[in-house]
Amino acid sequence: MAEEESRHIQVSFHSSAEKPIPGTEDAVIDVPISADWEKLNTLVNSLATAADDEWKERRFELLIGSTFLRSSLSEFIQENHLDFERVVKIECVDGYDPPQPHLSLNGPDWISSVHVTPSVYIATGFDGSVTVWDKKGEKISQHSREESAVKGAAVLQKPKGAGVGGLRLATGLENGSIWVQEWAADGTVTAVAALKGHARSVEAVRVGVDGTRLISGGFDAHVKVWNLTADASDVHDAPKAKNEKRAREEFVTKTPMVTLAAHSDAIVALEWSPHQKERAFSASWDHSLLQWDLELAGEVSRIRAQRGFTSISVHPSTGLIIGGLTDACPRLYDPRSSEGSFLKQSFIGHKGWVTCVRWTERDDHSFVSSSFDGTVKMWDSRSAKTPVYDISGHEDRVLCCGVGEGAILSGGVDTKVNIFTF
Fold first, then answer.
1. Which residues are bridge partners to 323 per DSSP?
2. Residue 391 in contact with residue 88, Cβ under 8 Å?
3. How much is the pTM?
């Protein structure tokens, strides 16, 4: 340790933020190679305070190349085979506050998807159930439409007030059905529409920004586009209630507007394009990620991967895509890339299949992933080798994750829905 304290290395600090950190521009500083994240953070804030009397202390993540510093400089340089004789360039990234455990909720079966709105948490299950809790964790409703696993879901309409009233949800079932249902203020659920057209399990459903179109995909390898507004082809149904005490429901049965066939295996994830409302993405076990023009009913582009996809998430501002595949590495893709590979980065940290990925609302770089290894990880897309935080709490495989309203949700085989705030 004495030797490390006496040995120094030159470092420079910089930031990609619009406003540079005072006192760090063009400065090259000698620091002990024993210096770690905490000491370097103190140094950066000291330099800024000396240069700007109004500087307020900030917590930075320190990025060297594509990895966050999590050890001493000496250990980092040795592990990454860097040259002790060269100036080490360190990027200062605004630090992430650690996610805080908020709630752990019990579901009735394996959890297939999780969702959050301003007033409620939602989880779908392999037993066919949809469970809704308020923000305090009190169960409001638990409802099953059919005895078939819910494999995918999408919030079409958020509750209109502080409770569940007005919530509208689309659920894709293992038997090929898609149901659109609405919740009343007292937690009762009524069917609005049945979408019929898939021959096998529906694995993914997504609603467009304006709420008038829905896309779905599943084990029949087809993407189907649905019109959620009133249509001349709608069939109005009012089947007999199984229980006489239950009121008869009136709903419409819809058929797809368009069916798209270009995948050769199950479609497991769908996303709408954030910049072109007529375009969408589909990801499949056939190792491909397709971009579609839904108006022309044709394929626009195709990204080929080394493995089958399990999940995708498209960033609403940058358009970059995080993909989960049947291995332990989330991947970053740029579908607009015109030079070289669409693949821009792979992220190392999980020890099992990545089951779900979601960009967070924090900034352009933060995303979360869930895995068969029983963990949820929070990442910064600029750091490929080190997740920002590991989020634990599950006792078995984690099957899904969700982000929104300042919360990270996850669910899995242990039937729990864990909620962290950040």
1. 312, 331
2. no
3. 0.88
- Residue finishing a domain among 43, 63, 94: 94
Candidates 117, 133, 172; CA nearest to 149 is 172
Supply the CATH number for residue 21's domain: 3.10.20.90
1 located within any domain = no
Query: From CA 92, how far away is CA 69, in angstroms rounded?
Result: 11
Do 251 and 348 reside in the same domain of the chain? yes
The CATH number linked to 130 is: 2.130.10.10
Instruction: Print the domain residue range for 150.
Output: 100-421
**Cβ–Cβ < 8 Å for 282, 294:** no
Tell me the one-letter amino acid at 288: S
Characterize the bridge pairing of strands 8-14 and 88-94.
parallel
**Are 75 and 120 within one domain?**
no
Half-sphere exposure of 22 (CA within 13 A, CB side): 14
* Residue 23 exposed, middle or buried by CB count within 10 Å (0-12, 13-18, 19+): middle
Q: Give me the residue label for tokens 């626009």.
A: 300
The string of pLDDT tens digits covering residues 66-82 is 889 988 999 998 888 88
Give me the pLDDT at residue 236, please. Answer: 79
Report the Cα 233 to chain-centroid distance in Å.
35
Question: CA torsion 222→261→259→303, rounded to 10°?
Answer: 80
Q: Is the dihedral of CA 372, 407, 390, 382 positive or negative?
A: positive
Q: Which of 346, 356, 349 is nearest to 390 (CA)?
A: 349
Of 47, 63, 94, which residue constitutes the final position of a domain?
94
H, E, C per residue of 131-148 = EEEECCCCEEEEEECCCC
In DSSP notation, 41-98 reads HHHHHHHHHHH-TT-----EEEEETTEE--S-HHHHHHHTT--TTSPEEEEEEEPPPP
Q: What is the pLDDT of residues 360-402, one digit of tens each?
A: 998 899 999 999 999 999 999 998 988 999 999 999 999 999 9
